[in-house]
Amino acid sequence: MISGIVLAAGLARRMGQQKLFLDFRGKPVLQWVLEAAMASALDEIVCVVRDLEEAKKKVSLEHPKLRWVINEKAHEGQGTSIIAGLKAIDARSEAALFLVGDQPMIQSEVINGLIELFRKNSKLIVVPTFHGQARNPVLFHRDLFPEILQLTGDRGARALIEKYREKSAFLEWPEESPFLDLDTWDDYERLKGRSER
Description:
Elements: E1 2-8, E2 23-24, E3 27-28, H1 29-38, E4 44-49, H2 52-58, E5 66-70, H3 78-88, E6 95-100, H4 108-120, E7 125-130, E8 133-134, E9 138-141, H5 145-148, H6 158-163, E10 168-172, H7 185-196
Parallel strand pairs: 1-4, 1-6, 4-5, 7-10
Antiparallel strand pairs: 2-3, 6-9, 7-8, 7-9
């Protein structure tokens, strides 16, 4: 089985409010990510949040694949959310796909493409790219779980892609929109503009 871990416990310091619950095409940003994950071939989805009550109030989703996990250490950085999510997945999982909660245009086709590529080869990491640049979400083989669990502070698992480049597979995607994320108000306006075209 393959697990999806949605990282949704960020502090959103740059925007001054929780960006994952901003309205995007009539739904919260995070809901789009979760729906893409639920529509994909992922076997389970663990969504890591800081405040479960707020998340469930804003994102009204129930699904057999979906579980929520609270990260009590969210203030210490993204690494803690990665670890909290990884500790919560099914012990039989052969790989974990890490999604970020602020990519509302992510598509289940991208997720499925990564899973298919993982199934076809024996690589440790499967990464989507646009014009050769690595993007999120990224899939990691269970052999790397012990290293991921050693992450500290605000470091994501991107360093592992560099370390294991020879053992990674890359999925070049023809368009950038699924990978666009939301870090600033300008990003938000740009994303809304793209979705209206």
